[in-house]
Write a structure and sequence with these properties.
The complex is a heterodimer. By secondary structure, chain A is mainly alpha-helical. A three-stranded antiparallel sheet of chain A has the order 1-2-3, with no helix packed on it. Chain A has 24 helices and three strands. Helix content of chain A is 70%, strand content 3%. In chain A, helix 2 packs antiparallel against helix 3. By secondary structure, chain B is an all-alpha fold. Chain B is 81% helix and 0% strand. The longest helix of chain B has 51 residues. Classes of the chains: A mainly alpha, B mainly alpha. At the A-B interface, helix 11, helix 16, helix 19 and helix 21 of A face helix 1 of B.
């Protein structure tokens, strides 16, 4: 068998362009680095336009074996387009960064995300998957603080574990199904579970969700925009490919949606709060994909697209607040509308979009999801998702807009005059993000038409619009009823990471103390035994001295009352026994 | 349609109430109790590092360091 390294292709791969240019950006001198950095997503967008149904790219390892890196269909394209747009926005936002490694790694991370959604077989999927984990780990670390280093270490542990689970699943998958990606719904085997756990970790499915609020807020403000857009959405894409139609996932999704909101209501750190919202929105995506092809998969894909847009905008605005004030907690800021009006407006648009406000993009894609779950799923799951919508409105649209931008500050905050001016590139990126939320919200067909089945949610009916307005009214009433309780508090909010931060810590403490005590106990016993043996072997008469039998005690030299006659008798008897034994042996 | 909207309002009110009670009462109290351990451990670590660097610290001040 001859080995070759030939790439057969009739198109350009946007992901590979990003990865190659990412490496180049690291090496480029400072003068040309920023223009090159800015040009990369444009090149990726151009390459995406060049893709078509006949596109293929095969990395020919041998004459009989090749890795397919391009698969063109609507599902791949909707994710790819979203990734291209958000890459452009995120690059614009982080243009004033000065860490060339972070710039390069961000491009490589975005490229590997594109590689995942374009993967034509499971091998290229896992290669891009692992590359994505490595690049994102660096982005978490890039701030180079003690907290970011620790967070990056925990991040790579979790994703290393998840990546290995997926790798094992894929190896087993190849032996049974071959290289082609196919749906595994209903085939509950070792392969299914290994792959599901591997993907679920990246999709932040509880109880392995805490890596996200742990890691993302520790990265730089530009890094968080990249992080919030690729890993989880690529995981949802892989879930759609392999597990779409797995009905019980609707419960997983509904739980994620509610749980994310509960934690977001508690959270005080701006970016951690947004991370819980990512998780909650992922819940909608998981619930939708559980409903299978048609409204389910289309809802999941369309909502993923819109989620990337509004979530990116929210993270950018939160980053702008952190940049401007130097504070990351809601309790430390307030009344920022006056000093950061553009950020406030962009945040408001994106927060209304995530809540599902009519004429913004979240509204249109939620219509598909709710239709799918109401038609094909359990009624309780639909109610849970509706309640999560109310919670989203309360925890982000009211809570942050009120306490950070428009309401009076709860505590003493940075004076408006001291708020740093936001750079132009960051402003442009935020406006672009907010504009996409409006454009795809007013013209939802732009997104509907690139979903796999091209279903139309018909969102703009009077009933549907009123439904959402009523939901928001209910949420607003309860929020202001419990206003005092809803005020931000400065405190830690551990969730499932309690298990490894507290429970594991306690277990290690308990186990190490137990092991220490165990050895101390046995060390003592063994030492005592050695001491006893040593002393008594060295002086056998001590045995006789401590004996329970008076006769034996009496023969001890230590015994002052010993009778020498007894000793002589004992010696004679011993000799006699010995003679008898020798005689018997001799006769035989 | 009005009945449907009222139904939605009911879901919104009950749902929002459920979320507030669960997060701000049940979860918050549970988490606060459990987090003291973590908070103190973080503060201890911080203090050790500072002391290793030769900086003496006031315990009350460093206890706040571990917070997110």
């Amino acid at each position: 068998m001859t080995l070759g390294t030939i790439i057969t292709a009739n198109c350009l791969h946007p992901g590979l362009i990003m990865i190659a240019m990412g490496l180049l950006v690291i090496a480029l001198p400072e003068k040309v680095r920023r223009p090159a950095y800015m040009a990369v997503p444009v090149l990726a967008i151009l390459a995406t336009f060049g893709l078509g149904p006949d596109s293929q790219m095969v990395y020919q390892i041998s004459s009989k074996f090749g890795i397919s890196m391009v698969r063109y269909d609507n599902l791949a394209m909707i994710f790819l387009i979203a990734f291209c747009i958000v890459s452009f926005i995120a690059v614009t936002y982080s243009l004033n960064g000065d860490n060339r490694f972070e710039m390069g790694m961000s491009l490589m991370y975005a490229g590997s995300g594109m590689g995942i959604v374009l993967a034509g077989d499971v091998i290229s999927l896992i290669i891009f998957w692992e590359l994505s984990a490595l690049a994102s780990c660096y982005i978490v670390y890039a701030k180079r603080t003690r907290k970011s280093t620790k967070a990056a270490f925990r991040y790579i542990l979790v994703h290393g574990f998840g990546g290995n689970m997926l790798l094992v699943g894929i190896i087993a998958y190849i032996t049974r199904y071959g290289l082609e990606i196919q749906n595994l719904t209903g085939q509950y085997s070792f392969i299914f579970w290994m792959m599901f756990v591997g993907v679920a970790i990246n999709a932040a499915v509880p109880p392995i969700n805490s890596w996200m609020p742990d890691a993302y807020p520790e990265s730089t403000i530009g890094g968080t925009v990249f992080l919030g857009s690729f890993t989880t959405k690529a995981a949802i894409y892989v879930m759609i490919r392999f597990f779409a139609g797995t009905e019980w996932l609707v419960w997983v999704g509904a739980f994620m949606a509610i749980y994310g909101i509960l934690m977001a209501l508690l959270e005080n750190d701006l970016r951690r709060l947004l991370c819980y919202h990512i998780m909650s929105q992922l819940g909608y995506l998981v619930a939708a994909l559980a409903m299978g092809a048609g409204y389910g998969v289309d809802g999941s894909a369309a909502h993923a697209f819109n989620n990337i847009m509004y979530k990116g905008t929210l993270i950018m605005c939160a980053g702008a607040v952190i940049y401007g004030t130097g504070k990351r907690k809601i309790s430390e800021v307030g009344g920022l509308y006056k000093s950061m009006p553009l950020t406030a407006i962009c945040f408001m648009i994106a927060s209304f979009a995530i809540s599902g406000m009519p004429f913004l993009n979240g509204f249109a894609s939620k219509a598909l999801i709710m239709h799918a779950v109401k038609e094909g799923g359990p009624a309780l799951a639909a109610v849970m998702l509706t309640v999560a919508s109310v919670g989203t409105w309360m925890s982000i649209a009211i809570k942050i807009n009120w306490f950070v931008f428009f309401g009076k500050p709860v505590h003493e905050v940075t004076p408006a005059a001291e708020v740093k001016k936001i750079p132009l590139n960051m402003k442009i990126a935020m406006v672009l993000g907010a504009a996409t939320c409006i454009i795809t919200g007013v013209c939802p067909k732009l997104v509907y038409n690139i979903t796999p089945s091209m279903t139309d949610g018909h969102p703009f009916t009077v009933e549907h619009i009123l439904e959402y307005l009523v939901l928001f009214a209910g949420g607003t009433i309860v929020f202001f009823l419990f206003y005092k309780r809803m005020k931000p508090h400065d405190e830690i909010s551990l969730d499932f990471d309690w298990f490894y931060r507290v429970a594991l810590d306690r277990f290690i403490l308990w186990a190490s103390t137990g092991i220490h005590n165990f050895f101390i106990f046995w060390d003592g016993k063994v030492l005592k035994a050695c001491q006893y043996m040593g002393t008594h072997m060295g002086n056998p008469y001590l045995w006789t001295k401590e004996s329970d039998s008076k006769a034996i005690r009496n023969i001890s030299f230590d015994n002052e009352d010993r009778e020498i006659g007894d000793v002589i008798v004992a010696i004679c008897l011993t000799l006699l026994v010995m003679l008898v034994v020798v005689a018997v042996i001799a006769v035989k | 349609m009005i009945m449907e909207l009222l139904e939605y309002l009911g879901i919104a009110l009950v749902g929002a109430l459920f979320l507030v009670v669960m997060s701000k009462f049940v979860l918050q109290n549970t988490i606060r109790r459990e987090n003291h351990y973590y908070e103190n451990r973080e503060a201890r670590e911080e203090r050790k590092l500072l002391e290793a660097a030769g900086i003496t610290t006031d315990k009350a001040n460093t206890d706040k360091e571990g917070k997110h």
